[in-house]
Write a structure and sequence with these properties.
The chain is α/β, with parallel strands linked by helices. It has helices at 5-8, 11-24, 53-64, 82-87, 95-100, 118-130, 166-191, 201-213, 236-251, 267-282, 289-294, 386-391, 393-402, 432-453, 470-481, 501-504, 528-540, 556-566; strands at 41-46, 70-76, 106-110, 135-139, 196-199, 306-307, 310-311, 340-348, 353-361, 373-377, 410-414, 463-468, 488-492, 516-522, 546-550.
Length: 572
């Protein structure tokens, strides 16, 4: 019996999904529930894409009624790398003395295109030496000239921006951001603390430009109106957006509703920019907002976390199926072949618009060979870039393929929110029905687009479907109801959209068509019981599967290690 998500997901299940995510938590504080934070001492360094931020944040602080805030200083150098601020002569250098004083709580830097930047490393070392609680924020800006020189979309005059494609802009920003994330992750590892964070201004600006194209930002009809020159020096709209993003990252609170006096922007424009900034920063793991939400005093008596439907109780077989990945498994290695990551667009008949998906092709990809494909789905607060931000599948696979531990394959990371506005904005839980609708988009639009564009083996034995959280539920629902399409199915920390076990596997005999059924979850995940219950059912019905339980939570490290092990099992 076919389990159809689009018709069988009940209103009750969707409401449970919303409630559980709110309670089990993504670590995001809603603006209306946020309390006024305590004041911080903030020092800013940067170039011309950043140094308009300090005076605007000062206005926001006043509007928010934050007491005790202090502008600890600024240091601006046009077109600068962070290392130039470090190397500035002592008699001119304001940043070093400020950090040495230990009287800075937040230190901002604006990254240049050349990453890694040794200046970020040096300021981190100096700052943490004198204030172990220091937070260092690195602004990921919008890309100068829109994209790298030589790439499609590179501009030489501002008017050319009106022809820019959002997919090209996003690819450029994604590549820049990934390099920043790698350096931030390495510094946090070295210092054994979460100290270096990234402010995703570039992503917010791409979203603003998409709104302009769609006619959703009042007063602006062309992308070029947001900038003053081909380099990317910006008008007040982008300045305000960048400042709201920095305010959100500095104070870990929402700018929505702030009344900014004497502004050249309309109240409606401010409201849109505030919401866009908050949605972008609060949903981005490297911004630090999730860390803040999780940094709560421990209870007097530690307790097992509560799960969906009650407390979590571990059974004897709720244990790891694999050891922890080795050190460096997620670090880019030199001296080995590397695959290609690209953002592409496709026509979705299901949604009635053009949509985006990210695609990884393995090292040495050639049309003379047919490749298997893994369709990898994101969570309720993510999009087609989430897996790359959380786990860098291209790096994992490059390393595993080089070591002979994974079959060369194509990985497709689509947007599982099948609606025209598929951005993770506002109340992301309201889009739950669109995740069910994605079943048709996947089968009727995504897969045909991939099989027409890439050299793939168009057979069920060469298709895998897996995902995290909401995407894990989608993978189990869609994969197990379409065994004529998928032979390899995996759910990582699957969410409450997951069907009931008896519906997912109504005919145990049909499970014989599966080459792999994978379930994994962290034992400290509030959604643990969903995967645990399905494992119990499969065990009772003697249906072969992998059940991998770690001590993790509902977070990126859990999904990264799950993907690492999963890709070593498929197509082997």
């Amino acid at each position: 019996m076919r389990f159809n998500m689009l018709t069988n997901v009940s209103r009750r299940m969707l409401l449970q999904c919303v409630a559980l995510f709110v309670l089990a938590g993504c670590g995001i504080v809603l603006a209306e529930d946020a309390k006024t934070p305590a004041g911080l001492r903030v020092f800013y360094t940067g170039h011309s894409f950043h140094m308009f931020v300090p005076p605007q944040v000062e206005q926001m602080v006043k509007a928010a009624g934050i007491q005790g805030h202090k502008l600890a200083g600024t240091q601006g150098i046009g077109g600068s790398r962070v290392i130039q601020h470090w190397d500035l002569a002592d008699e001119k250098n304001k940043a070093k003395p400020a950090l040495i004083s230990g009287e800075v709580d937040v230190f901002t830097m604006a990254a240049h295109l050349a990453i890694p930047d040794d200046g970020i490393t040096k300021f981190t070392e100096l700052g943490l030496k004198h204030n172990p609680n220091l937070r260092l924020l690195v602004q990921e800006s919008w890309y100068p000239f829109d994209v790298p020189r030589g790439s499609p979309g590179f501009i030489t005059n501002n008017a050319q921006r009106d022809e820019a494609k959002i997919a090209d802009l996003q690819v450029a920003v994604d590549d820049w951001r990934r390099k920043l994330e790698a350096q931030a992750d390495e510094l946090n590892r070295i210092h054994n603390r979460k100290a270096v964070f990234i402010v995703p201004v570039g992503d917010a600006v791409v979203k603003l430009r998409a709104m302009v194209i769609d006619g959703k930002f009042p007063g602006i009809t062309r992308q070029s109106e947001l900038f003053t020159d081909p380099i990317g020096h910006c008008q007040t709209h982008v300045q305000a957006l960048a400042s709201y993003c920095n305010y959100a990252a500095i104070y870990r609170t929402s700018p929505v509703g702030l009344k900014i006096p004497r502004s050249s922007l309309s109240d409606e424009q401010h409201a849109i920019l505030q919401k866009l900034a908050w949605d972008t920063v609060s949903s981005y793991g490297h911004s630090g907002l999730t860390i803040a939400a999780e940094s709560k005093p421990p209870e007097e008596e530690p307790r097992r976390p509560r799960g969906f439907g009650g407390p979590i109780a571990l059974n004897p077989d709720d244990k790891p199926a694999f050891p922890e990945p080795p050190a460096g498994f997620d670090q880019k290695r030199e001296g080995i072949p590397h695959g290609k990551l690209e953002m592409i667009e496709y026509d979705s008949k299901t949604v009635g618009t053009r949509r985006r998906m990210q695609v990884y092709t393995p090292p040495g990809y050639t049309t003379e060979k047919k490749y298997p494909v893994l369709y990898l789905l994101h969570g309720i607060g993510g999009d087609e870039t989430e897996w790359q931000r959380f786990a860098r599948p291209d790096v994992l696979l490059d390393n595993l393929i080089a070591d002979g531990k994974a079959t060369p394959l194509i990985v497709v990371m689509p947007n599982g929110r099948a609606q025209k506005n598929d951005r993770a904005e506002g109340n992301v839980f309201a889009a739950a029905p669109a995740f069910a609708k994605f079943e048709r988009d996947l089968l009727d639009d995504v897969i045909p687009a991939i099989e027409s564009r890439y050299s793939v083996a168009a057979d069920r034995g060469f298709r895998a479907l897996a995902g995290l959280s909401m995407g894990g539920g989608q993978s189990l629902n869609f994969g197990l109801s379409h065994l004529d399409t998928f032979a390899w199915v995996g759910g990582f920390s699957s969410a409450p959209n997951t069907g009931k076990p008896e519906e997912l596997m109504a005919d145990p005999a049909a499970a014989g068509k599966l080459k792999l059924l994978w379930l994994s979850c962290g034992s400290r995940d509030g959604l643990f019981r969903i995967s645990q219950n399905f494992h119990t059912y499969l065990k009772q019905k003697s249906i072969p599967h992998i059940w991998h339980v770690t001590e993790g939570g509902h977070d990126a490290p859990e999904w990264k290690q799950a993907l690492y092990h999963f890709v070593q099992k498929v197509f082997r």
